[in-house]
Amino acid sequence: MGNSYAGQLQSARFEEVLHSSIEASLRSSSLVPRPIFSQLYLEAEQQLSSLEGGSRVDNEEEEEEGEGGLDTNGPPNPYQLAPPPEGCCTMDGFCQAGKDLRLMSVCNEPLEVPAGFLLVGVKSPSLPDQLLVCAVDKRFLPDDSGHNALLGFSGNCVGCGRTGFCYFTEFSSHINLKLSTQPKKQKHLKCYLVRDAQGALTQGPAICWKGAEFRNRQASASANSGPVLPLLEGSGPLAAFSGEPGAPGLNLGIQMSAQQAGPTLASDQPPMAAAPGSRVFNGRDSPKHQQLAQSSLVMLARPSALGILSNSGPPKKRHKGWSPESPWAGDAGYVQGIVSRAKYEGAGVAQAGTVGPASVAFPVMGSGEPVSVPDNLLKICKAKPVIFKGHGNFPYLCGNLSDVVVSPLLHTCYQNSQSISRAYEQCGSSAVQPISEEMQLLLTVYYLVQLAADQVPLMEELEQIFLRSWRQSHLAEVRQCPQAPPQPYPAVPGPAAPVTSAQLPWLAGLAASSCNHSVHVIECASSLAEGLAEMFRLLVEGKLAKTNYVVIIHACRNAAIDSCIAVTGKYQARILSESLLSPSEYQRKVHCELATGRLDSLGAFFSALCPEGDIDVLLDKFHQETQGHISSSVTSPSVTNAVGLEVGGIPTCATDRQEPRGVRPSQLAVAQKLLSHVCSVADSSTRNLDLGSFGKVDFLVCVPPSEVTFQQTVAHVWRSGVLQELGLEQEPATRQRVERHVLKMDAEAPATFTAFLQRSRRSPHTLFVLVHDHAHWDLVSAVRNLYSQSDPCVGLVDRLLNCREVKEAPNIVTLHVTSFPYALQTQHTLISPYNEIHWPVPSGDGAGLYPESKKYFGLSEFIESTLSGHSLPLLRYDSSFEGMVTALGKRFPHLHSAVIRTLVLVQHYAAALMAARGLPQMKNHTSVETLEITRNLLSAPKQCPCGHGLMVLLRVPCSPLAAVAYERLAHVRARLALEEDFEIILGDPTAGITVGKHFVKRLKSWQKIEDAEWRPQTYLELEGLPCILIFSGMDPHGESLPRSLRYCDLRLISASCLARSALEQELGLAAYFVSSEDPAEQAARSEASGSGDGEKPSGSDNEDEEEAGPEASLEAASPSEPGSPARREWSCSHDSASSSLSSRGSGSVLCSEASAQHSGPVQGELTRASPPCGSMEEARVPVEKPRSDGAPRAGQQSLQVPSSSSSPGASCTGTLVLQAPQCSLAKACRQPPIIFLPKLVYDMVTATDSSGLPKAASLLPSPSVMWTSSFRPLLNKTMTSTEQSLYYRQWTVPRPSHMDYGNRAEGCVDGFHPRRLLLSGPPQIGKTGAYLQFLSNLSRMLLRLTEVDVYDEEEINTGLWEEPEWHYTQLNDPWPDLELFRKIPFDYIIHDPKYEDASLICSHHQGVKSEDRGTQRTAEPPVRRRTARIRLSKYAAHNTYHHCGQCQHYLGSQPRYQLCESTLHAFAFSYSMLGEEIQLHFIIPKSKEHHFVFSQPGGQLESMRLPLVTDTSQECIKSPTFTPTTGRHEHGLFNLYHAMDGASHLHVLVVKEYEMAIYKKYWPNHIMLVLPSIFNSAGVGAAHFLIKELSYHNLELERSRQEELGIQPQDIWPFIVIADDSCVMWNVVDVDCSGEHGREFSWSERNVSLKHVLQHIEAAPNITHYALLGLHKWGGRARACEVREPFSRCHVHDFVLLNVDLTQNVQYNRNRFTCDDVDFNLRVHSAGLLVCRFNRFRVMKKQMAVGGRRAFHITSKVSDSSAAVVPAQYICAPDSKHTFLAAPAQLLLEKFLQHHSHRIFPLSLKNHGHPVLSVDCYLNLGPQVSVCYVSSRPHSVNISCSDLTFSGLLLYLCDSFVGPGFLKQFHFLKGATLCVICQDRNSLRQTVVRLELEDEWQFRLRDEFQTANAREDRPLFLLTGRHI
Questions:
Q1: Contact between residue 714 and residue 773 where contact means Cβ atoms under 8 Å apart
Q2: pLDDT digit string (tens) for 182-217?
Q3: Which of 683, 922, 1336, 1843 fits as disulfide partner to 915, beta carbons 3.0 to 4.6 Å?
């Protein structure tokens, strides 16, 4: 029936088996972890006789497992369920009747529950994330204490309604649990189900099966992630760090003490002490707590930092024949302690920061006779003793359990040290023995002995001591392990030989004998219970009054030992016991003490301390005396001044000038880095962000639920103007509209966030940036949070920001912004390490990488101020205050320390205010520090004409105590008549700021605000207001404080906040920007800082990050010389000199507002340090003696009193500085605040280990994470922020309550969310301004991505020549009329602006105007061509950065087209002019093979398909498009999908062989034509030549192929498109003709697709009669004359349609690099063919800074030559020793002629009436030389040259068509120059002879030249001559 009981297990046998299993697991070398059972519990209700006789354990309990805890490494229990009936449903989550039982499915359905039945959640192994719903008779369920459950089962199925299940086995079959073990209701009935406020059925409290809440739940993870141990979640020490009330903690194997209120007891612990209100009876906690423990079972995935540890243990059924070597294994692995880390370092709260990889789940058994806790123990001891369980079994405690606390921290620490050897074995070392239990205990005693009286043991320190001791004893094995970390802890003495059990008590006692009774050792003869009883007896008798620690050892049972350590010191025990409270428990306890009136006794004690009587009586007396006749001398002068100035005029104060608000250089740099990371995400191969598809930016900033933070962020956004920059608001927005973009994470946030998601879905082309500010707040998982129903705000961040909609939305980028990113840097984080941006920090010499006008003063600077012996530290503690708190803690042990500390501090403030108001006797009842604060608070307004004062921040984390402090201080202020002097503000995160009307009026006057309804809404708006800000809340929520903050009183921060992030958060309140030092002091600091850590290179993408490790947050710089300027920087504090006399403690009170000037040996150094500059000049004058007149105290405040740094009591001698009164706000601008800390926190912050690392930096980074292992390297002082992030990512994992806990399987990089970024930086440094600037930059970039720079130039050479007589008169013709077009003369003039520096071409059709052309054009081309920024249209061509859903298939992104699915095909043809066969290669993707014809057998490429001339399909483009390209694989505009408007087309990229791979990588779905390797160094002429020849050869092949199909050869489409790779958009000009003669018209321009352009041209009548067709170049300032004529017969460039049939005999010059299109145009025209330009179509060309002609660089072949090569060096004399150049000869020739043609043709310079005759070619001779082109071919069309006299003759590689007779028909000027260019010198001579040039031309030997090429590079040769 599933409820049977097993027999009893004898205690002795159990202990033997248990000990053997532990020993075997520690020595096991197996890599498969094997858990041991450690869940054996003895019933608390059993009689003492049964306890003594043996332990009865229910079989049902011993066989219980955790969730998912089925044994995977061993055979399961042989149990088989009966097969289900045929035809029934067997689906998981459904009953056999087919009804859905899953909670998520039936939660909203009405369910009928019979009377006496309860709805229960059933856990199914096959549905680990689901609960099944069933109805169970409550008689068969346990009560709240875990008892009174009837055996058996009775339940109903809520799905099909079947009732009467009497056996759980039968019921489990019906609901398809599909179990492999015997069904047990204890294992599968998990929790009650309840209805929430909305009526939905939800998971309720856990069912408290007896003993279940004490068990370790064994869970197994996947095979990849390794096995894990189950964790038990509680609210104990974790909640103490969790940052929100009631956050559940973790308990792994060993649970927290029963002191916790939400607590689960340790899994193997007997009953322990409970917190007040939570009684514990013999091992059974309250029902509520048991339910909580039962419901918080979780599993933890094993981290990858270390290998898998192996254990062995007994099987589930314990047989006598079992041994530790039995082949049974369960799942075990890493466990992590729930216990929070040490609250205090050194003198802080002990805590198990690392529970690490426990080799065994060691049971702490309760056995033997229970120990009774004496009554009134707390009253006798004045503190609750804290007992740390150590080794072995721990006895039961009974009696007055509320007066003791039992903790498993030490036991966990011992377990962790056992895993160290296992970790070394897994990294390659040989088998080693772990540290023995005896050595562990002995080292613990040594550690306790060396602790000072004001220190508290820290478990992490003890762990490191164990590690160091073990490493020293296994040095050889340690050296084999590369991960062995250096340990900074000092060597701990230990015997060389192993310690035996018999030696242990004696050695421990010997070690304790030297500590003056601080440690007492008790040796037990029979059991540990005997020692505990002895300890309690000694405590009651008062014999342990001087003892802080009691070590109890029982070492007589076999070889094992039992031990525990009790902390009995009042100071240590109080801290330890209070540190175990969670924040919610802490708040409840304080509230209870306040509500029950326990403070009355403390108030009575305060009254008894005051000899003058009760303080309230004194206040009343003072109030009566001063009421009604307060003199002006008593009233603050600042009040009078302020009131008078409000009426009379404008005050004179240096701080009146508002500082200009702007973005600092570091903020700009961070904004740019954020933008770079977003671009990196977009550029990644995963394509998770398509920036090209967004045209707008929107944002939402999520802030914690603090009204001040909300208003502060709203003000930031409002002032930044980002809404206008993003186009979200057309005019300056109101604050109400700004609030739409800032979300306060409170109960109303889900509705606003839902609207944000809807807005993102409606705007797919808007990029939404979700900024999560203060991102370390509320990282609680919404799924695993037990309190989500009671507190809807808990887990809200996870519920909203991690929802599926945000994760999957392609247009949402999440930016986490925080100063404390550690909780987001775990093994399970969603943020990739490559998406982290760290704030740049100053380098080691103090000079920042980004110059700032102000210096940031953060944590490292505060800590650094404590290291100097000659400066006033900015971090201080109050020894008087600490002493009084300690004394009162002993007197009132029942009161929480926070209550005592708060009331004492309020009492100090009250006494200090009374002393400042004329009651000097109250000085004795306050501390020096508090007196300094109050005096400066009251006196500061008197020094400013405007009444500016300073702010005092009083941090009271507990809200009820903050209310008490506010009421008390307000009462004291009212009685002292100080309501007009300073304000008291209660800073509640959930409420706004309340300020009195008088102070509001003063603030409005200072800030020049005229709004009558204005009230301050942020703390920043309180600048200059004298006030005490009582800042409450367990955690700050990102509130910024004003510059007038002078004192940051943190003496009340609770011990539970001191994880690294929480501690830095508290200290970050005082982070500050101060005025920069003068140059002299900066130089001094530069000399003083000799450390080079700042220059440590970083391998991250944050190149400018120079952080020297954790010191930017919690690490101070290394101590330097006492007198170094770096330590003197803040020696002048302008506050009371009392702090200088008590820099770390208290001292006598001296005059306030005095800066300490040092005398003695360091006086000379100090005179070299400039004092801080203020608003008024300071005169340094010698003063022989102090003032002796009766000047009032206000006058004395200007004196700077020197003090000696040697001792507090030293006399004050030396020089005094006389200083005029200064505004406190002016001084605050250059001085950071002073921070007062609790002594424990101060010691922890300032203490460093031997490596120089502050101990606080090694704290657990966040309470919501845990270490993966204690075997980990320590943080390094020189680590950068990136290295720290990688450290935490490796060594921390989130707790189950963390929102990242279930993110991903360990080690899976796919868990990173691609659109999440993390910005981290120090507090108050300007992160908000940085990310707002980033939003502006992102918006501008997106706008820039939707725009393109295109060339915007007017046509050139339009006004130099007379207009031709013939025009194309038909303005409305869509296509040119062939006959009319033939009559138009060819325009030889080049009009393309890119040829501004090219030679003009003369013709007989156009006459030169009267003005000289040389005056119209400059000799030098413009430096930069004119461009215009144009928004991309939907028909634009794109580069590789464009990604959208429409063109994915075009780019080959669809799965069916794999990137590798392309084939290489050779295509060969012969060309007679080359004299050899040309072989080209096609790379054809599978998706484009339909454009080609392949031979059937073999699949050889035969031809490229060509359409017919008569094809009229509107869905395809007939002309194949060829795009030659080089160096532009990323930027080339090859994506023509949108340009072609989706039409089918053939596009071929023509690339060089060496660039084939890179182009194929970026454009995998494009056809590529690969040029032969001989053309790798060729220019664009070679590509054009091969394209044309290939196309003609392909035309012949297609004609032959289709002729067989009956198609005539002339019907094959003969055109191809040759387009530049920079053509981006195409426009059409629409002309509306009107008026007489049809010559008057209006026109407009619009963007069209390339498909429209090509189809229009291809549809032209008689198109096959045109040889070359082109488009007009776009210009933004087109004139009417340019668009008047629709067609022109002129040069065409960049985008041409070439008729390869008509131009069969006209070739491109394959050698050309420049002007090859002009040369080809002239050849086509001279051949009598038609060249037509469609003027109404205009092509835009994008400006590109890479590739193209820029890809060719002319350099010297001499490798060590650094001199630049100028064009004059491109030509040299043959056989000379000229430096040869690494460039093609043709390129050198063209560049030389372009820049230095005047050296060859001197008569042609600016002589446009006598051009240079160029035969058969056009070469650019520069803009100042004109040429006349003629063709030597027969029947060619040439200009009439009979009336022209030429100034020169250019013969370039002339062929046989050029003969002597041809040249003799031209006339030349006398002295004209000839230039003959040939391939070699022999050809040069032959040409001269063949053309009979020597008849008319004179040659000299020295007139022969060559290009500056080596012989193997085949130079070109030139010969010049003069006409006779």
A1: no
A2: 888 888 888 989 887 777 888 888 888 865 443 433
A3: 922
Please report, for residues 870, 1076, 1436, the alpha-carbon distance to residue 1452 in angstroms, rounded to integers and kept in the order given.
70, 57, 19
CB 906, CB 969: distance < 8 Å: yes
Burial 1690-1726 (b: 16+ CB within 10 A, else e): bbbbbbbbbbbbbbeebbbbbbbbbbbbbbbbbbbbb
Share of the chain above pLDDT 90, in %: 41
Angle 296-298-299 from CA coordinates, rounded to 5°? 170
Residue 768 burial (10 A CB sphere; 0-12, 13-18, 19+): buried
- Under a CB-based contact definition with an 8 Å cutoff, are residues 1477 and 1586 in contact? no
Q: Is 214 within 8 Å of 220 (Cβ atoms)?
A: no
Residues shown for the chain: 1924
Residue 817 burial (CB count, 10 A): 26
- Strand 386-389 vs strand 560-567: parallel, antiparallel, or unpaired? antiparallel
CA–CA gap between residue 162 and residue 160 (Å, rounded): 6
Query: How far apart (Å, rounded) are the C-alpha atoms in residues 1867 and 1844?
Result: 7
Confidence (pLDDT) at 346: 33
Kindly provide the residue ranges of all beta strands, DSSP E only, lying in 635-689, ordered along the sequence: none
Residue 1250: predicted pLDDT = 67
Copy the structure tokens of residue 232. 């038990």
Q: Averaged over 178-183, what is the pLDDT?
A: 80
Most confident of the ranges 620-634, 1074-1088, 1740-1754 = 1740-1754
Q: Which amino acid is at 592?
A: C
Q: Structure tokens of 508?
A: 């421990």
Q: Backbone dihedral region of 1452: left (phi > 0), alpha (psi from -120 to 50 degrees) or beta?
A: left
Query: Cα(410)–Cα(458) distance, rounded to whole angstroms?
Result: 10
1028 and 982 in contact (C-beta within 8 Å)? Answer: yes
Buried b / exposed e along 1041-1072 (16+ C-beta atoms within 10 A) = bbbbbbbbbbbbbbbbbbbbbbbbbbbbbbbb
How far apart CA 1667 and CA 247 sit, in angstroms, is 81
* More confident site: 7 or 844: 844
Q: For 82, which DSSP code?
A: P
CA distance 263 to 283: 13
Q: What was the pLDDT predicted at 156?
A: 92
Distance CA 1390, CA 1386 (A): 11
pLDDT at residue 1421 in the model:
47
pLDDT higher than threshold 70 for residue 55: no
Please tell me the distance from the alpha carbon of residue 100 to that of residue 133, in angstroms, as a whole number.
Answer: 9
Q: What are the distances in angstroms from CA 205 to CA 211, 786, 1479, 1792?
A: 16, 9, 80, 90
The token duo for 1859 is 């003969």
- The CA-based angle 1819-1820-1824, given to 5 degrees, is 135
| The token pair that represents 1384 in the structure block | 């138009």
> pLDDT (tens digit, 9 = 90+) per residue, 1718-1746?
999 999 999 999 999 999 999 999 999 88
Q: What is the DSSP letter of 658?
A: P
Q: Give alpha helix (H) positions in 1116-1219.
A: 1138-1141, 1163-1167, 1193-1196
Terminal-to-terminal C-alpha distance of the chain:
127
Q: Can you say whether residue 15 is alpha, beta or left, with left for phi > 0 and alpha for psi between -120 and 50 degrees? A: alpha
3-state SS, one letter per residue, for 1218-1285:
ECCCCCHHHHHCCCCCEEEECHHHHHHHHCECCCCCEHHHHCCCCCCEEECCCCCCCCCCCCCHHHHH
**Helix (H/G/I), strand (E/B), else coil: 767:** strand
Q: Distance between CA 921 and CA 1700 in Å, rounded?
A: 111
| Count of other CB atoms within 10 angstroms of residue 880 | 18
CB atoms within 10 A of CB 187: 24
